[in-house]
Amino acid sequence: MIVFDTVTERFARRFARGSSRRSLLARFGAALLAAPAFPLLPVARAKAAEPDLNGLTDFERNAQTKDPAKCSYWRHCAIDGILCGCCGGGLHTCPPGAEPSPICWIGTCRNPDDGRHYVIAYRDCCGRTSCTTKDPDCDCNTNDRDMPIYTPFNSNDILWCFGKSAATYHCSTAVLMGEAS
Amino acid sequence: MKEAGVFFFEKKKQKTFIRLGFVLLTAAAPLSPERSSYLEGCGGCHGIDGQSYAPKVPDLTRQAGYFLCTPEGRRYILRLPNVAFSHLDNAQLAATMNYVVFTLGEGTAPAGAKPITEAEIAAVRGTPIDDPDLLRVRAGIVAGILRACPAARGLLAYGAP
Question: What's the whole-model pTM score?
């Protein structure tokens, strides 16, 4: 029995010496401090994966990559006009009877899928009267990076069809030129 | 090349294939900074490849380099309002103008013409052309260029009555 008492006592004393309340406090404190450094919860991890939306324009925050027939489609960030896709044409093509203008407005749009910027040429289709569409989502005026008319090379308010002999405006296409740098 | 690559595709698929190929091709390689700047600042009117196809806008392809034939011509292109007022800084603008005169205007710059430098841009940028009759100013510059480089006759096409 005495042996058992002695062993227990030694163990208890050694344990008490080696594990003070201070060391417990110190370790607990260290754990508290270190915890925020590790994203433990799925919420924190999901938030970390989100792109940084600071510095984006309103258009870029709401841009989508699914439906090219809507103004919110990412390539339409600087379009002032009616989407040819709503008028029997497409993103790259003029509707029958309308001709592409030799002169176009060029903008740079951010693709939300990869976060990169691409140069887009908004080429007007001309020679027919303005395309009429009842869909308000087809008549766009987004104008990212557009500047007032006194900087003509930065303004898209000029009727670009002016390069064509038949200068009537019909609709606008949005051709991808390549990744901007 | 086009025929070989898509020989087995029926017509509709063929079109989609070519278009997809084009998009992938263009999207894969980022544009160079000067090409990007050219497209964003100049290419809308002067044309994607330097040919405007519009009588109201001068072509740059097979022409732009001739402006380096005389010191006045060289200074003139840097003082054009849309060049001098560009949002680019001097180094970026120098690179873009070199792209215009040497790449788009390939074969037209006189032999031994030196690239446009950042310092050159800085020196003239503060005094852009302020004569409202730009065509008249240009005609004077072009006359001088034609004396130095007779091959530059193409410059006369723009602004001809």
Answer: 0.73
Q: Where in chain A is the domain with CATH 2.60.30.10?
A: 59-179
Task: Quickly tell me which residue has 């809308």 as its tokens.
Answer: B44
Which residue in B35, B40, B100, B134 has the most chain A C-beta atoms within 10 A of its own C-beta, making it the best mutation to test that interface?
Answer: B40
- The class that CATH gives domain A59-179 is mainly beta
What residues have CB less than 8 Å from B72, skipping those under 6 apart?
B141, B144
Q: Which two tokens stand for residue A128?
A: 């027919």
Interface probe for A, chosen from B22, B25, B39 (most Cβ of A below 10 Å), is B39
B86-145 pLDDT, tens digit per residue, is 989 999 999 999 999 999 999 999 999 999 999 999 999 999 999 999 999 999 999 999
Residue with tokens 């925050």: A61
Give the Cα separation of A54 and A67 in Å (integer).
24
Q: Which of A74, A80, A124, A160 is labelled catalytic?
A: A124
ipTM for this prediction: 0.73
